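The records we work with from here on pair a chain with its fold. These numbers are not coordinates but entries in a learned vocabulary of local backbone shapes. To see the layout at work, look at the sequence and tokens printed below:
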Amino acid sequence: MFNKKVLAATMAVAITGGFVAESSAMEVATNDVGQVLLGSGYFAENGFNTEIAVVNTRTDAAVLAKVVFRSHMKSVEILDFLIWLSPGDVWRGTVSTNATTGVGHINSTDDSVRDAEDTAWGDVTALDVDFFTHNVTATGDSTTFGHFEVIGAYAAGAGTYTLTDGSSIVVTQGMTKDDVRTLFADEGLRAATTTQCTPSELNTANVWSATAPCSMELMGEVRIENGTSRATYHPTALKNSTDNPDVSGYVNANPAFAISTGAETLVGDGWGPAGVEWVQEVEKAVAANSSSWAWENDSVITTHAFVTFPTKYRHEGDTVAGLCGTNGTGGALASSSTTYSAPFQNDTDGTIVYTLNSFDNSENSELIVTTGSSVSGAPTTVVVPDSLPNEVNYIVPAYLSGKDSGWAYYTWVQRTGSNCDYTGVPLTAYTYKFGSTTGTQTAMDTMANK
């Protein structure tokens, strides 16, 4: 978890990933715009809040998306809700801690979302609820630290739609949220095939679609702050890929895909053609063999790391067909509910093993938890592995002894015997620079994590 004593001046940058390109229906967007957003983390403890913004970057399509919050350790769902975005629209919300209950809390006065008990749009407190705690049963898990997903579900291109009751709705910038909600509630206008993609194609067919990645171009921004300092990052965005023409490069290629707030929506579940499991496609898009970053570590500034395994919860037990476990149906072990399928380690917490190598600016190198160094990166000591046990992991790396800056990299270790159809480990990762004094930190160049 966050080291609460050193959170002062902060910034965030995506850790660059070393990866091997895999043939996948989807890929990580280098411009942070896609149909699905994987929010690596939110934090609402010790006076810190997390502000989240989700933008519909298309000015010619309306979108319905689902937001799901999950805990940091076991990734259990603690809240989900729908957001209705008109063309060019943005939704904003703030995650904090309820001072009375100590539970994570979200508030949004944005008219793109409303509390389930509200009867009209535009209420002063459209969404103002505590996260649910009944699923958070593991010791150490919490609702004030975790990650989230934004799943672009349905899209409707610009134009006039004739509803099944004979009335009409015009999809355009500035349309009312009541109209957006009414349009997506009309199942009679839903596309039955995967051929609709662009707004013009959607409008010609007078339908809205669950398989329109060209029309679902979402972007997110997350800001963690305490009033005097802040850290900002863009969630990892999954976009359509041209590598697999058989499914037209969809993030979601299932025209029968359905969402609701009454049933959990799992990453990859039913996203494939005819509703097949596609979590492995998500994992191929984000899998990395290694991750690297530049660091500082002196009396004023230190660089910490934030590593999330956004699909790990799909590997728990023996319930998902198609994952790369030892059991032919996909899980870790037959009839087991306490183990994790590959590439996660086959134990009760699914820990990921890694090694960390640190270099200074003169190419001196040192492996984690060792002493001594060598020139030009030729290590003379034995690699000592460490591990990350949670879905979201906040860590303080061990950098080169006695040095104040340099660069470092993780090497991610798959479980022995893994038969995944991708290499590496599916993850998102960011660094944060923390200072002992307040002030503005200079941001490092940001690249989308692979």
The helical segments are 177-185, 199-205, 279-286.
